[in-house]
Every structure is written in structure tokens, then in C-alpha cells.
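User: Run a structure prediction on this.
Assistant: Running it now.
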Amino acid sequence: MICPFCLKAVPTGSAYCPGCNAAANPDMVPQYAGIFRRFMAVFLDVLIMNLVYAVLFVPLWFIAQDQGEEFLMIAMAVPSLVLLGLVLLQLILLLTSGQTIGKKMLKIKIVKEDYQKATFGTIFGREIVGRFLCGLTAGIGYLIALFNDRKQGLHDKVARTIVVQKTKPGQAAYAAPAWQPPQPDFVPPPYPADAQSDPIAPPPLLEETAPPPPLEPEPDVWPAPPPAFEPEIGGSMEETVPPLFEEPIRVEEAPAPPQPPAPPIPPAPPVAPEVPAAPPVAPLAAAAVDAPLVCPACKSPLESHSPDRCGVCGFSLKEHEALPVGEAEVGEATVVVTAPQLITYSPEGQQETYTLQLPITKIGRLKDNHLSFPREKAISGHHCVIYLEKNQFFIRDINSTNGVFVNSKKVEESPLADGDKIKLGFKVFQFKTR
């Protein structure tokens, strides 16, 4: 992939450009170089070689007029050798980097159609085969670049190359994503060809158990019960049957010693009725001092570092006094606004979510901002603010270097809606309110 800001090749898998340290974004591509810029690059290459040849040849020619014919041959050979070396240098630069000295001066480069670095064979086919075909058409092959969007001549179409130029931050184009067939929601894992299914074992057979022994038949005659106890004739029941419970032996306890009489209890003194205490009175002055102040215009909380002006709506507080919370006008509806979010994606493809501060959020590269991005060199120290005014969110540019873009349009101050795309430097955010 080619970085659109420095035209250097970004290694595969790298999150940042090695040339300008910009975040690598495969969807961001450089702009096509115009026909006039390409013509001026060729003109500079020819002009540089002719100037070098003239600077060396003219002085040696005048010196050779006095020295003789031998020195005249040297005066013609030295500039020719230098010119040949310069031509070889231009050819080596073109085959290795896709740029000559003139192209480097005008910040353009030859790359492949898929924005990859052009190889040696690609540039060789463009400069030899492609320009030979353009010569056969009497130069008409070069004019084809005027009638297509990618500004490709016949030699570019033969080698499948394009010429791009450096792009300023905020002006890079986005490549259209390649079409992909729709994928099913669930794809079953592939079944290996050499896998063999295990045979299902049959259930074990039940073991045959021995039948239970037969029950014994009930006897026809039951045994007679034992004879009951009968007392002996001639005796009494008390003598023959022992008593079930014996009478307990009673033990007489010793009498307790007499206790002295208790002293008389004196009468309790009369108790006065309790007087209810008065409820504590809250200090009104302290509550009024400690209560937070709000702007009388937009009812937004005031910040301590801006006592003379509201930080949200800019209302002057020199001529009007700020109101404590609770003294707002009666009858106004209370609107609860949830904090919106900014959603972006890191170079590794991970989603990053940032919750904004209400009522105002400062965004920049320095650490004193609410949202700080110290690694983003294209974001200014204090880039912009997002604030809430009358239930509507706005974004304002605070003199940033690369500007603020909302939905690919550069703005100084603009209202924000759910789903808007905000671009700050190389970072692209999506504004979400729900």
C-alpha cells in the first residue's frame, strides 16, 4: 500500500507509515496526478540535463579555441560523459522508486493500479513497450489521459500503472470496497476425508436371573398360644402378683432460716414534663453559597475558570447575575440529555468508544483536553469542541491546522446529528447519541 501523504510504501501488516508516521488506512488512497503536473515533470527532467550539459560544455568550448583540436575533443567528451551518467541516474531512480528528479520535485509517483509499489518489470514495460506504442500512434496515446477519470495514457494502460500525487491531510480519497459474496450466518466445520465414524455398539443383553424360590404354603393348623398366668389356689392376689411400682421413700427437709425484713422504699421525687426542642434551622446563606450556579440564558452549569461568560452559549455574566440551581423559571420542562459517544476504529481494527463530557467536550492532542490523542500528529493541540446548546449538539473548530470535516465537508461550526462522520486529521469518528 502507498501512503497518500508521503508516497512511501507501507509494509504489509504495519499500523503506521514509516515515512510520515501517519496511521495506515487501506481505504484511504492518494489523488491522481494531473496532466499539466506530469508534463512539467518531464519538462524539468529535460531542462536539468540540458542545463548540466551547457554549464560544462560552454566554458570548455571557449578554452578549447586557444588550446587546439586535442583539447576540443576533451571539451566535447567530458560533458557527454556527465550527461550519460545523469541519464543513467534518472533511469535507476525511475526503475527502483517510480520517480525521476522532476517527479520528486513535483511530488508525483508511478504506482500500480491497486496502489501498490511498481516493480522493476512494470516500469520497464511502461517506459519501453508503452512509449514505443505511443510513438507508433504519433503521440495520440498520450492524449488518451485527457479522456478518462484515472488519467491513464496508452503506456499506463499497457503496464497497468497510474500516476499519483501527494495529498494533504483531509483531502485523501477513499477507495471503493471490493465486492464480496454474501456469507451464511453459520458455516459448519469441514469434515476430514480420512475420518472414520466409530460403529455404534449394540446395547448389552440382559442377564438371565434365576426365578425366585416358591413360597412355603401356609399351615392349616396354627400353634396354640401359651397358657395364661393363673394364681395358686388358696393364696391372695397381692401375695402372688408383685407390685408394679414401689412407693418412694419420703425424706423430710430442714426448715429454712428466717430472713430479715426488707427496708422500706422511699417515694420517688416528682419528674418535670419534657419540653419538645425546636427543630434546627438550616443556614440559608451557606446553602446559597455552596449551591452550583447555572447560566440564566441556557440553564447550563457554569465552569469555575470562566466566571464572566457562559462556556456553552457565550452569554455575558457581567450584566446579569448567575442563578443557583433550583431558581430557574417556573414552567420550563426539564430535559434529560444523555452523553453522546464518538466511535472510531484503531489501525488494528478494534473499535474504540469515547463518551463525551456534558455540556462541553474539548478534543485535541494535548493532555489538558477531555479527549486527548497524543499520537495523532495531524490533530492540533486544541483542535475542536463539541458542546450542547438548547438540546442540540454542535461542533466548533478552534483554529486547528487541518480543520474539521463533517460528512466529508469542511466546517467552522456545524450541528451534529446521530450517525454523522467527523474527521479530525487522520482519525474518523462516528457521532452516536443513542
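The chain has eight helices and 18 strands.
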